[in-house]
Amino acid sequence: EVQLVESGGGLVQPGGSLRLSCTASGFTFSSYSMRWYRQAPGKERELVADISSGGGRTDYAASVKGRFTVSRDNAKNTVYLQMNSLKPEDTAVYYCNKKYQPTSWGQGTQVTVSS
Predict the structure, then answer these.
(1) I want to staple 93 with a disulfide (CB 3.0 to 4.6 A). Which of 5, 53, 68, 108 is the partner?
(2) pLDDT of residue 31
(3) pLDDT for 100
(4) Residue 20, CA distances (Å) to 8, 42, 102, 112 in order
(5) Mean pLDDT (whole number) for 23-31
(6) What is the enclosing helix (H) or strand (E) of 101?
(7) Residue 47: CB partners within 8 Å, gap ≥ 6?
(8) How confident is the model at residue 57 (pLDDT cuts 50, 70, 90)?
(9) What percent of the chain shows pLDDT beyond 70?
(10) Is 114 exposed, middle or buried (0-12, 13-18, 19+ CB in 10 A)?
(11) Residue 90 has what DSSP assignment?
């Protein structure tokens, strides 16, 4: 069974940092490019970042470029999202999924940026 489990969210003040993790199981993680998405209340899910299967290539939404960094550890079947200089508009539920042949969504992890 394919599973994606996101963690690491929380409440943080503007300008703060968080590191999200997504641990995958049920497929050959190292063979797949992965993506981070987010969904804010009342908005559609949007792409935040993606990373190639080996980790050598990354891409980011314009809104997070220079502040967020995506990485992965294939030995741990885990993809990370380091988020720095957080803004209130980064508040959302964050999800990961495969870039191609996406699977069912995990529960996500809530990130709230507020003073």
Answers:
(1) 108
(2) 97
(3) 92
(4) 5, 22, 19, 13
(5) 96
(6) none
(7) 35, 36, 37, 61
(8) very high
(9) 100
(10) exposed
(11) G
